[in-house]
Design goal:
Helices cover 38% and strands 16% of the residues. The radius of gyration is 17 Å and the shape is globular. Helix 1 (4-14) runs antiparallel to helix 2 (22-32). It has a six-stranded mixed β-sheet with strand order 1-4-3-2-5-6. It has seven helices and six strands. The protein has two domains: 4-56, no CATH class; 73-194, Glutaredoxin.
Length: 196
C-alpha cells in the first residue's frame, strides 16, 4: 500500500525544475507526515496547504511568514521554551540588544529552548545585512505586514524591540517591551525551564 510520503516524493521528483531544493523539501515533507523527531517546524498540511507551500522555520534567514504560518511554527515547538524577539533593522535599541540574544541562544543550545527573531515592518535587504553583520544564528522570520496585520499585530506588538516568552505548554508567558540584558534573558528562561 503506498504511503503519503511516497506520493509526495513522487510529485516532487516529477517537477525536475526544483532539483536543487528536492532534498530539503523531501526532508520537510517527511517531518510533516510524522516521520521526523518533531523538533522541526511545519504545519502546512494542518492549514490545508501542501508541504511545499512553506519552507521550514530554520531553512534560511528571513523566511516569510503570515500570522497563521507563524502559529503553526510555534505549535511544532511545544515542549520547548520559546523566546520570540520582535525587531527591525531601523531600530537602534534592537541592534544593540541582538548580541545578547545571540549569546544566550548559544548558551542554551542543546536544551529545550528555541530563539526566534521576527523582523517586522522592515526592508528585507536591510534586515538581511544586519543579521549577517551581527552573525545571528537563531531562526528569524520576515513579517512583511508587521504592525499592519502581520505577526506583530497578532502578538500586540506596538513598539520595538519586544520579546515574548512562550512556556513549554505553548502558552504565552509574558512580554518585555524593551531591550533585555543577558542576565534578564537567562533568568526568564531558567524560570520557564523549571516550571512544569
Amino acid at each position: 500500500m503506498p504511503t503519503p510520503n511516497r506520493n509526495v516524493a513522487g510529485r516532487l521528483r516529477a517537477t525536475g525544475s526544483r532539483r536543487a531544493g528536492l532534498g530539503a523539501l523531501l526532508a520537510f515533507v517527511l517531518l510533516l507526515t510524522g516521520c521526523g523527531n518533531g523538533a522541526s517546524t511545519g504545519g502546512a498540511q494542518a492549514r490545508g496547504g501542501s508541504a511545499a507551500d512553506v519552507a521550514r522555520l530554520d531553512s534560511a534567514p528571513l523566511v516569510q511568514r503570515s500570522p497563521a504560518q507563524f502559529e503553526a511554527d510555534l505549535a511544532a515547538l511545544k515542549d520547548r521554551v520559546v523566546v520570540i524577539n520582535f525587531w527591525a533593522s531601523w531600530c537602534g535599541p534592537c541592534k544593540a540588544e541582538m548580541p545578547a540574544l545571540e549569546q544566550v541562544s548559544r548558551e542554551y543550545a542543546g536544551k529545550p529552548v528555541t530563539f526566534v527573531g521576527v523582523d517586522s515592518s522592515d526592508v528585507r535587504d536591510h534586515a538581511s545585512k544586519l543579521l549577517t553583520d551581527l552573525k545571528v544564528t537563531y531562526p528569524t522570520v520576515y513579517d512583511k505586514a508587521g504592525i499592519n496585520g502581520g505577526i506583530a499585530t497578532s502578538w500586540a506588538v506596538a513598539s520595538l524591540p519586544q520579546t515574548w516568552f512562550v512556556a513549554r505548554d505553548g502558552s504565552r508567558s509574558g512580554r518585555i517591551p524593551r531591550p533585555l540584558s543577558v542576565a534578564e534573558l537567562r533568568s526568564r528562561i531558567d524560570q520557564l525551564l523549571t516550571t512544569a
